[in-house]
Known about the structure:
The protein is built from 13 helices and no strands. The chain is mainly alpha-helical. It is globular, with a radius of gyration of 20 Å.
Amino acid sequence: TRVSRNIVANIAGRLWAALMTFAFVPVYVRLMGVESFGLVGAFASLTAVLAVVDLGLSTTLNRELARLSAKEESAATSRNLVRTLEYVYWATGAVLGLGIAVLAPIAARYWLKSDHLPIASVTQVVLLMGFVVVFQWPSSLYSGGLLGLQRQVTLNVVTIGVATLRGVGASLVLWLISPTIQAFFIWQMLASGLQTAVLGAMLWRSLERSDERPVFDLDRLRGNWHFAAGMTGISLTSVLLTQMDKILLSRLLSLTAFGYYSIAGSVGFGIASVASPVFAAVFPKMTQLTAQGDEAALAQLYHKSCQ
């Protein structure tokens, strides 16, 4: 079934991304040093915390596209929803990137404790983090849309390709061009931009065509704010439970010590991520069955997926 294929694709995508992380961490540490890798860990924590600013919109798009796919003549509504959330997401990413850039000197001097890296270099790296956020931010929205349309094989093909590009490309840049943390984040910025562009194009190609031009529709936001607010609460709780240690330790520890902690965190995250592929495949299908009112199929899917 499509759900089974999606589960297999999701597992393959997650395992490959985890493998890329595990395989190249020793390379990064050897070429850049563990102190520089501490900044990579700080960026991972930053992006996890910023996920709260998503406001549940990527999951909302996931649910709504799944629900609308079960209805006739919903092409225009789906395209308007994507266009509306797309505008919101790009604007939010730009604001977040600008905020990080403004706070870069403060974070470098008063938050991140560097033993060997000059404050000017740390400031440059935090500034580059802001650019990475701008280019990477909309990719979660496009991913949510592809999940909702159950185009998860396509999504994971892109995920595998980008994960390989990030790891292999970053290693080659550090080895052949410059073994610096600045070069690492410049490559991540380019890879993030490519990922967002590809996912955006794939989502729009996957949407059902309509003669109407997609437009910004404020009613699409008003009609989903209750669900989005609930997802925001869940995201906030998740961040508090999973990232508070890293937020505190990035302030209390030196970047060298935090780099070792980040290596351990990467291993732990890779193991925990094995569970999510099942949810990612089942959620849109359950939404679709709910919209169709097929309670028997919904119950059967629920019990099978739990097992």
